[in-house]
Design a protein that fits this description.
heterotrimer; A alpha/beta (418); B alpha/beta (835); C alpha+beta (166); A: alpha/beta; 13% strand; C: 166 residues; alpha+beta; 4-stranded mixed β-sheet
Chain lengths: 418, 835, 166
Amino acid sequence: MTEYILLRHRDIEGIDQLEVYRKNGGYEAFEQVVKKQTPQQVIDEVKAAGLRGRGGAGFPTGVKWSFLTPDVYPRYVVANADESEPGTFKDREIMEHNPYQFLEGVAICAYAAQANVAYVYCRGEFWDLAHRLETKIEALYEAKLLGKKLFGTDFSLDIYVHLGAGAYICGEETALLESLEGKLGQPRLRPPFPAAEGLFAKPTVVNNVETLTNLPPIITRGADWYRTIGTEKSPGPKVFSLSGHVERPGNYELPLGSTFRELIYEHGGGIRGGRRIKGIMPAGASAPLLAATDEVLDTPMDYESVPAIGSQLGSASIIVMDESVDISWMVYKTSSFFKHESCGKCTPCREGTYWMYHVTKRIQEGNASPEDIELLDSVARGIQGKCLCALGEFALMPVISGIEHFRADFQTHTGDRT
Amino acid sequence: MSDSQVKLTIDGLEITVPKGTLIVDAAKRAGIDIPVFCYHPKMKPVGMCRMCLVDVGTPRIDRSSGEAVRDDSGQVIIDFRPKLETACTTPVSEGMQVRVWSENASAGRKQIVEYLLTSHPLDCPVCDKGGECPLQNLTMKHGPGKSRFLYSEKKHLAKHVQLGELIFLDRERCIQCGRCVRFQEQLVDDPVIAFGDRGRGLEIVTYSNPGFDSYFSGNTTDICPVGALTTADFRFGARPWEMNASASICTHCPVGCNLTLNTRREADAGGREIVKRVMPRQNEMVNDIWICDKGRFAHHFATSPERLTTPLVRAGGELVESDWPTALAKAAEGLKAAGGAVIGLVGSRASNEDLFNFKQLLDGLGGTALLYGSMAGGDYVGQVGVGKDTELAGLGGGDAILVIASDLHEEAPIWWQRVIMAAKHGATLVVANGRPTRLDHYAAHSLRFEYPRAVKTALGLLQAVSKDKGLAPYEGEQELKAAARALVGADNLVVFFGREGLDYAGSDALARACARLLIETKHTGRRNNGLIPVWSGPNTQGAWDLGLRPDPQFANSMQETRAALVIAADPVGDDPVLADSFGNGTFTVVQELFLTPTARLADVVLPARSFAEREGTFTNALRRVQRFYSAIEGMGQARSDWQITAQLGAELGIELEAQSCGRVFARYAAAAPGYEDLDYQNLSETKSQWPPVGGDDLYFGGTAFKNDQGVGVQLAPTSERGSTVDIEWTAPPEVSKTNGMLLVAVDQLYDRATTVKPSEVLEPRLAAAVVRLNPSDAQRLGIVDGSGIEIQHNGRVDTLPALLEGGIPMGTALVGRSQGLAIEYPLDVDVKPAS
Amino acid sequence: MLADNHQAEIERILSKYPPDQKRAAVLPLLYLAQHTYGCITEDAIDEIAALLELDPTQVGGLTGFYTLLHDKQEGKYRIQICTDLPCALRGAEAFAKEVCTNLGIQLGETTDDGLVTVEGVMCLAGCDKAPMFQLQDDEGIHYHENQDVSSTMGLIEELRQRGSDD
């Protein structure tokens, strides 16, 4: 890829200033849809582009918008900026350095959803970022790109920033809505889905920051253009967050379908200190661990190919581990994470993450016997398919895959070398 | 198959249920038990405990044709979902197949139980819930025998957390099912408990002041599926299997909640059987499976050591212990000597049988039988009260409710709950009072009136709905007219009327106006329509139906009286000024539970049994006649009021039924119009009710008791029995304005009444003995919040602290009844800072 | 009283939400209370409940759920070091340990002079700039990335100076 579509600040200096953004085509898309297109046309274009949710679920964005209950108003758009998946820092870079493209995406989404109010739900730790975003929004009001009757039409839009207060589960869209409404951030029963009953029980679209940032280029350059990037089923550019034992951790914007090898070795500079790669967690903590074989390294990173090799692309937060890593320690770290972040609402996740945390901790501390590995595996499998939301389901994935691929790492702690 | 019915198969059993039924309810109705913890049939499902996991399969449908796909043998192909589903969140669908006992589903539920038990303490031997514990029962049926969880990793949590003075929480036992939180939030709109923290640390917290500040908090201990929530009144009290259960009816208010009294013999009580706890008994037509905390906790008066246990006779100026023959003879002698100048006063706690014998006795003596009360209207209720089979729980969209001159939350909490639920379901609520109460929040129309003018508001409503222009002087403003329109257009209308701010004549005028309103808008003579009186006691309606009435001037009549018979009433306690009327020149016989101020002045005091020690019937304010049964033996030598009265009759040569309560009731039924078809038999008929509770179903509906002893019979008012009713409105009594303040009495749930005070557990919750004033009035009078004030009336001075409250109307001072300040009707008083 | 001193801010917060959905303002108001009083006090809970027409329970129950809200005051500054997997892979745990050793405390504890509490927290989205931490004080949260022990100790010293300058 020669030009940046999402991380445009890497091409254009100062694009976080409104005048620079506009000089480089900014807000042409929003003006175009408001003045010249119907909401349905926008939905159709986004559907045609094949844009899929970048928050982790990969659900087709245009299709999600089309689930909004007709004739029920008001509607709301919520930008999910609760980026809390370990190894994920793409939304942060977008909001810090290319904020107006993101905000323009929010506006386009609001127009398509016929919403006049949008909230950016920012994780609480992004305190500084959120306050800076508010000044960007103020600039948009001053430039009459937000507010009443935009571009001489009847369409009005207000965007507000709302800060969370430290809870990973609030990245789950219904938990996010609960939190925004002022309650505990615990996921709701689905159905009903937010498109039917979302914020304040009204039809709501919840989209990830990166997803929304894709909208201005899709509008200005068209669905057909968008589809020239990436793969047939996973079109478009993706910001991959690369972290762990690589020379150059960071965000890399590449077409979907680029391989792990390309990301890790060509862009990430390979494993630091020339060590050997051991394992990859491709979706932060929320997918099965991949043993870093050649087959895996040559797998394209898209929403079809990664499941085909037994994991998920998720938010494309690629955590790389070299040969020095004890996978049982890695599993202890992910189990600690999920135990800390479990909202507690449903029994299998609440009790299961607590239990897995304790068993993995005992294994690390050398207080475990070989049967504890079986116990850990069994407890993890006991959670599977029973939880109210995906957090519990994710929590078990590193455990089961870790034991499956690297049982020996566990056995070094339990005194069983068979 | 009709559009509204769905056919499905559960574990091979084919059943048909209404569309929209949840799998868990469909199974229950078919006799198949799917275990649940967080689900409760009276609340919206949340699917959080994951205990009700089942395998669900639906017919495979061809997308293009819309037809079910069949296999070679013609059977519809059923696709089972890849994951287990929660039966409580999944509605049934046509052709669905549910497998509750598949290997997959059983294993899934077994795993959930293992998870639940990881940090659940092995408290069973010492836990209150043992013996009636859903977790115990469901573990036996669905769970593993051993846990693989290491004890050292168990989470240790606080075990005796007081959520307020009435409810204790054991954090270790809590399985985070959320039933308590959702009950408070969804069913009684008191979100005073909530979940706090997260993950394994998720716990119940309360920040209200006082903690768990709700009149319904005790119900959460019934629906808690483990021993996490227990009542301070009962915890560690007894094992459920040790206790006897008797059906009863609550005596604290006119709702008539169905109770079960659990009793056990106690060494501490001298080997007597005493009431250990009060539990709800299911009656979906009256109180569902709920009771308020006053009904639940204020039962100790029935077994208080202060109770009168022997007859007392005045000798040498003192009351001395006597025996029944002597006391009865002495009492009869005094009553006879009065030569017909006898007044009888009976309180609203008296059962229908007590009332009947009482009236007969007074009639036989040629005296005057009076109901001791301060509110009128019971005769209009007999005519335009609610129709047969009325169920307040059935009110919703299209219906209307008017509540006037009553604070339902304090006076009849279960009705308040039903009214707010009706409003939530779309009923239009109109609330009219002199001050805002807890009902205004739900009202479509809130009408304010100056206290003496409650009747004018009712008449204003009447004027707005009727064509009779004679009501012109009572025209109201826009808000009143809008409210009236809502009442006219309603499919069904019920009117609750109270007595706040009214004297007797005022309450009669109010009742007439409300009755007329119902007649004019054609909301009489059918179910879910009619007049509902907010009486202060459980059987006021039973008294009115027998023809007993209060006489607001009875104190004047006492001048010419030479004898008085007082049953279940304490006029001197209510107003010390009446001390001159009893005892001394007026020969007084008192039948009572306690040595009340009236009893202290009596010539003969006869010890009566409380509701727990005898049987009888009450007629609630919706005119449902309900039986209550004896739970414990009479205290000492106490006897039932109806029996005492009959024995007095025997001494006086007046024939009264003295042996069988049922036979007294038969006589009552013959005398009270509309009761003729009732007897103890049909009053004990039960019916199948939903949801099932208690017994094997205590995990489903909770530990409320199944009603095997009778749901009672609701009487039709005369308007429903074909009689024409004609109740005319009357002009309200004129109220002269004074320079002082109007002192208005209000009812408070936790007052200092004789039947409440013996319950020490409620002591911290008793309503403060204060006088409430508007801050503007206080400033004008130089009164500071919390300081003492003097209230002067007719030469009497009372001193109480002041509490300033913005909602109190100007020119008004509000005081609770039974707070030590004698007041029944509104009084003109002078208020000033205490010297 | 929050209402007395921060009326304009409270109104600005409330204006972001529909007037019949005041409850949505509870998190911003909790931050305001925390910054004003140092932690979420019971009085603050009552006050916020009154402002939003909620029962205090509906406000109080939130403090324990959200990691950034505290019901007790610890150090004046909270140094919350990410020790989650990606940062741990790049030395965050050793970094945290050494910082604590230098301060004479264990992870999770507060220095004797009450200046600094050092805690390990979950992913802060700074994985490419590890070791890193966020500094939480009574005014907000600020990131400090690409840290090493000496830069961190230097920052703590600055904070100490800041305190003695007041």
